[in-house]
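Section 3.1: Structural characterization of target chains.
Under the original work plan, the team committed to producing a structural model for every single-chain target entering the pipeline before any wet-lab resources were allocated. The record below documents one such target. The sequence was received from the expression subgroup and is listed exactly as submitted; it comprises 597 residues.
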Amino acid sequence: MYILDAELRFVFVNAFALALWGRREHELLGKGWKDNLPFVPTPEVIATFQHAVATQTRTEVETFGISHRGWVGIIVYPQDGGLVVHVRRLLRNAPTINDTDLDALTGCLTRQAFLSARAQLHLPAVLAVIDLNRLKTVNTRLGHSGGDLYIRQIAHGVREVLPPDALMCRWGGDEFVILSSGENRDLLERALSASHALIPSPSPGVRAFSEGLALLAPDMPFDRAFALADEELQQQKDLLNAAVPGDWDMMAFIEFSRRLEALHDPDEIVQHALDSLVELLDFDHAIYVKWEGGVQRPTHQSVRAGVQPPLQALHTPVPIGRLAARMHLTRQTVWNTDYPSESDVSSSTLEEGVKSAIVTPVFSQGEVIASLVLQTVHRWQTITPHIRKVVELTALRVEHALELRRAVSEVRSTLESGLLTLGIVLEARDLETHGHTQRTARMSTRLGETLGLACAELDHLREGAYLHDLGKLSIPDAILHKPGKLTPDEWTLMKTHTTSGFELASRIPGLSSTVLEVIRHHHERWDGTGYPDRLAGTDIPLAARIFTVCDVYDALVSERPYKRAWTPEAARQEIQVQAGRQFDPDVVQAFLQLATE
């Protein structure tokens, strides 16, 4: 009970109210009612008081009481222009009580009731997030009914030591949230520490729960403070319980690694890594930023569905922020759950609403060559130890995949140089026009890209182009250099260059089946009248069908001892005429489109 004068100032407060509010009498007497309660009165309560003063009639209201942690009935009696106020706790079965406001198992507020009640609490306040340790162990040992009893014991033990005005809710199955008025973090920390003496531990040497705390300032969004408290909680759980990724996350990461190993193109490797991080860790942006000569340049990005992409355009230099600089200096992962608190956040970053961020280095031969940057936009995301482990493992997998591709690329470059040299030698012996081998290889690669061949297939197609006439090594010069028409026997021998080339190439280690197919089948025809195997239609390997068009086109537009060069227009017309006869019509269509472009 308490009494207010006509100015709604305290003139009397009973002992129960003082104990409940954690105040002393001299702190309240003579002071205004609304500004000195330990919580913000709801509009309906204010309206009730105003009505009682204006009408001088007894007035009642029922509302959720912050200090009582439950529903209360308030009766206001007019007296000498002021008010006598009586507040009583309502029974749980009172008709106005909504069962959803209190958690049935623990008696704490439900999440929804808590979120409604916190709006009435004076800020600043200390926010605590609590998570039970090893509840699965308790459930295994005691069964789920024993686990429920254990949760109830923890909730009651914590509530026993909380300040009188603190709010406590059951946020989830084994997670609780507490709000305590004021800025005294130590007071709440000591209270939570004391509660461990009242609560049984789940296993020897393990505390019943872990907690994280943060200050909720008057102008701070609740989600921001929650993310900071949750980050501290996750740090504590990582130290106490050696947290590891869950089964689903681990299986997803294994599948991601397997897919990464199967990719050959560096751009595909990086893009797959970014897409996987967004999906696995629920970030909004994942960006791959290259470091070149002290300059940052984003080259790839993945954006969660429904989120605006980063404002910074790809392939343009970006300023080096504090997080990135610290990552480069320490060569370690850096992060900030509350990213706007960084002292040098760029205006563009603030404009797009980045709230949480993590930056992890990517190395090559001991040097930082890039970084993986993950961000959330317009929401705070707790950067947990688990998240950092997954991002760092991803960076290692990207490093390994890129390093492997670099080594393979060097070996392949050496191999291709040797194969190209051999192709040029064959070209010279066959009196081909200078550059025919390189031109057909380049055209075949472009055409293969247009038709959707993967990077590895393009490499093999190009190698096949280099070696397509390898079998002419077995053709006598008299036939190879004969200026006139070949006799039937000479033509029969000439056609064996496809099979003899196939046999020779089969003895070269490391050549793929695609290379061998180009060598053997580049004289097959779509209508089945070619050689050596008279294959028809799609039975002819695609790489051979692609190369054949490029080979014939370059031969047509090149001058030979036995013919003049055709014009490109005439050659393209001939290619079109032979679609469906000598050539695959789809390949011809793609070739002509490419030639036009």
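Residues 385-429 form the longest helix (45 residues).
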